[in-house]
Write a structure and sequence with these properties.
single chain; alpha/beta; TIM Barrel; eight-stranded parallel sheet; two-stranded antiparallel sheet; 10 strands; globular; binds L-rhamnitol; binds zinc ion
């Protein structure tokens, strides 16, 4: 008997159907962020990364053109099984001549749409409010300067139009996520007015309505950024209230909360009041450092909340990390596979039985089973999932080959 069949019998003893777990996992889309491929540089080529986020490392071979980024993304997705989406930012517009961000149009993303169509990918989208002249004060939609605010309102409106167009062309709703860097380094004299301005800017942005079949608007909160340590305009409370009142989706980035606050614990509360919840899954190490996602406890707990609450179609899973110190393509593969592993781990939980134990107060047995589950042959089920896609755990050879044949060349030509 092969290892999968043996493992299957072991899980059956807990009432878990491993074939079903694999079938469900195959259908859960993961939105993979294009920006891991080029350290969030984009194709504008005229400003450094700003907005309180930072990338460290200078591993060779970074993509610097649409062609290179697409080629690298292709390599990554060839090593990842299951449903995938690509998450783009406005700075990845493709155009022969420079286009300012408030003048972006759907046509600047046609190449990405073709790319996605050829590979059966969905697309998600983000306006880019950082790394730009107009955000050098650190403020965008909450700026006291109306010229600045209006510029970014035009940008956000242009991006919503683009997202709705992408969603329509691909016949799959495009998540359009707004994250702004706005905040202050030191203790503000007025916390209310910047938030009032942000609220008014958002009201203008959302005054145009689109079909929810094509676009899902989301707002991403944050607690602090580098250089913006004391106050963030778009806080969790601000956006969760704004989102509830206006029928907009909240996006939770698990690097955007206080270190002992857990995003896994927040998902159920949002699910009760919203039809969708979006995630940026990342790995904060001591701060919002955006390390590559590993198969850690909090990741497993997030996956469990999605699976056991039957929310695989309500929680939109996106990744958001960027590491420039290792091979960027491997970073994509490792992080995305880990998200899928966490989902599989959750799908292999006898959750009905565990919930029952909780309800009848049998916490000893609940703890005992939860711990026993940790040493079941999970790896054999994961390998079977990979096998379905003709993949295995020896994918790194391919990265090494690509590194030698493609990435090293790139560096020499620079
Ligand atoms: C920043 C936010 C935001 C960005 C991306 C590039 O702290 O997490 O989501 O990482 O939009
Ligand atoms: Zn994020």
């Amino acid at each position: 008997m092969n290892r999968y069949n043996e493992a299957k019998i072991i899980y059956q003893k807990y009432g878990v159907d491993t074939d079903n777990a694999i079938a469900v996992l195959k259908q859960i889309p993961i939105s993979i962020h294009c920006w891991q491929g080029d350290d969030i540089s984009g194709f504008e080529h005229n400003s450094a990364l700003s907005g309180g986020i930072q990338i460290t490392g200078n591993y060779f071979g970074k993509a610097s053109t649409p062609k290179e980024l697409m080629q690298d993304f292709d390599k990554a997705i060839s090593l990842i099984g299951g449903k995938k989406r690509i998450n783009l930012h406005a700075i990845y517009a493709i155009s022969d001549s420079p286009v300012d961000r408030d003048k972006l149009e759907p046509k600047h993303f046609n190449k990405w749409i073709e790319y996605a169509q050829e590979r059966n990918l969905g697309i998600d989208f983000n306006p880019t409010f950082f790394s730009h002249e107009m955000s050098k004060s650190g403020l965008t939609l909450s700026s006291p300067d109306k010229v600045v605010r209006d510029y970014w309102i035009r940008h956000a409106k242009a991006c919503r139009k683009i997202a709705a167009y992408i969603g329509e062309r691909l016949n799959s709703p495009c998540l359009c996520n707004i994250w702004i860097p706005d905040g202050y380094k030191d203790i503000p004299a007025d916390r209310l007015t910047p938030r009032l301005r942000l609220k008014e800017s958002l009201d203008q942005i959302f005054s145009v309505s689109y079909d929810r079949k094509f676009i899902i608007d989301a707002l991403e909160s944050k607690v602090f950024g580098i250089g913006v340590e004391s106050y963030t305009v778009g806080s969790a409370e601000f956006y969760s209230n704004y989102a509830s009142k206006n029928g907009i989706c909240c996006l939770l980035d698990n690097g955007h909360f206080h270190p002992t606050e857990m995003v896994s614990d927040k998902i159920s509360s949002l699910l009760l009041f919203h039809d969708k919840v979006a995630l940026h899954v990342t790995r904060p190490v001591r701060w919002d450092s955006d390390h590559v996602v590993l198969l850690e406890d909090e990741l497993k707990e997030i996956a469990k909340e999605i699976v056991r609450n039957n929310a695989t179609d309500k929680v939109l899973i996106g990744l958001d990390y960027f590491d420039a110190s290792i091979n960027r393509i491997a970073a994509w593969v490792i992080g995305t596979r880990n998200m899928q592993k966490a989902l599989l781990y959750a799908l292999l939980e006898p959750s009905k039985m565990l919930k029952k134990l909780q309800d009848c107060g049998n916490f000893t047995k609940l703890m005992m089973i939860t711990e026993e589950l940790k040493t079941l042959p999970f790896g054999d089920i994961w390998n079977e999932y990979l096998r379905v896609f003709n993949l295995d755990n020896n994918w790194y050879n391919e990265i090494e080959r690509y590194e030698n044949e493609v990435l090293r060349e790139r560096n020499e030509n620079e």
